[in-house]
């Protein structure tokens, strides 16, 4: 389960499909150096993104059908 305190890089490395979710929210930062140290909640807040909604969508992307 993805939580707000996980680093952006950690999420994308563990769940590659989440990159599309981040891009859809305008968060292109998973390739930058700050992504290693910034957690997903911090990144979302910096971009004015609804954190609970983003986490829901990220977690949905980790479910395999």
From TrEMBL:
Gene3D superfamilies: SP0561-like. It comes from Desulfosporosinus metallidurans. SUPFAM superfamilies: SP0561-like. Transmembrane segments: none annotated. This is DUF1858 domain-containing protein. Residues 2-54 form the DUF1858 domain. Pfam families: DUF1858 (PF08984). Signal peptide: none annotated.
